[in-house]
Amino acid sequence: MRGKIIKGIAGFYYVHVVESGVYECKAKGIFRKEKIKPLVGDDVEIEVLNGQEKTGNIETVYPRRNELVRPAVANIDQALVVFAITRPSPHFNLLDRFLVMMESKEIPVILCFNKEDIATDPQVTELKEIYARCGCPLLFTSARSGQNLDQLGEVLKGRTTAIAGPSGVGKSSIINLLQPEANMETGAISSKIERGKHTTRHTELFPVGDDAYIMDTPGFSSLYVNDFEKEELKRYFPEFAPFEGTCRFHGCDHIHEPGCGVKEALEKGLIHKVRYKSYMEMYEELKNKRRY
Predict the structure, then answer these.
(1) 16 half-sphere exposure, CB direction, 13 A CA radius
(2) CA–CA separation, 205 vs 163, rounded Å?
(3) Which spans in the chain are helix H?
(4) For the whole model, what pTM was predicted?
């Protein structure tokens, strides 16, 4: 039987087989020998040991389309990056790190801004302006009022989607509405620090419909973008692309060089200053990592 690993705990893998349910499986010793560690998201072939008790062995791990290290997960079709419009206000550098990380892995992103029910029109407009040219679709939702959640459900169909974002932005509430069985523990935001307590403890895929899965990624507060060189960073800012060929110097990094088309576009408002600021901060970080 073919299925997908939706959870792995203490050497047991829980494999979801469409129309048959979830089987508790062990991985065969051959995987250890070949140094293959099954990951959540892996498509696998299982041998059923007991049909009633739903136990089995993982026989084959199919080749992966992609793989993330943190969280350790495979075969993600797209990422849903969720931030709140307000309470807490978006941390732009963190949000842009997410977009860069996914862009570098060639994983398409849907950018979701939640809590529209408590946001002002200028707050929404500002976010639309900053991310108008970031290369991914924007969705404004409210988990509380249910606004645009049907639209969100549509983009999840037939795909495995990783949901990522900081604590307290309503990720768990969104997952609960899309798939009540997920029953995620929603964390109350600490009013003092306006930050949610980390409520997600392990990586797990939840089936939403027959051929769609969503995965919540455990809470995070920092994300290091360091598995590529500083010269590559500009590739992961799609709004730079139209101006790349207009720089005086070939291989321009858009930082200090004169005659830079990207900086000219920035001055004309064709690239948003918030995005450019994130680019500069990440560039410096990548430049400095080589010293240590």
Answers:
(1) 21
(2) 10
(3) 29-33, 92-104, 121-130, 149-156, 171-178, 261-267, 273-289
(4) 0.82
pLDDT at residue 290, as a whole number: 65
| DSSP character string of 77-104 | -EEEEEEESSSSPP-HHHHHHHHHHHHH
Q: How big is the chain, counted in residues?
A: 292
Q: What is the DSSP string of 140-166?
A: E-BTTTTBTHHHHHHHHTTSEEEEE--
pLDDT in tens, 13-72: 999 998 899 999 999 888 888 888 999 999 999 999 999 999 999 999 999 988 877 678
Angle ∠(133,137,139) on CA atoms, nearest 5: 120
Per the CB < 8 A criterion, the answer to whether 248 and 258 are in contact is yes
**Closest residue by Cα to residue 147 from 195, 181, 184, 114:** 114
Contact assessment for residue 129 and residue 156, using Cβ atoms and an 8 Å cutoff = no
Q: Is the dihedral of CA 281, 278, 66, 181 positive or negative?
A: positive
**Cβ–Cβ < 8 Å for 26, 58:** yes
Distance CA 214, CA 19 (A): 18
What spatial distance separates the first Cα and last Cα of the chain, rounded to whole Å? Answer: 49
What tens digit of pLDDT does each residue of 97-117 get? 999 988 888 889 999 999 999
In angstroms, the Cα distances linking 64 to 43, 56, 73 are 8, 21, 10
- What is the greatest pairwise CA distance in the chain? 71
Structure tokens at 65: 């389309």
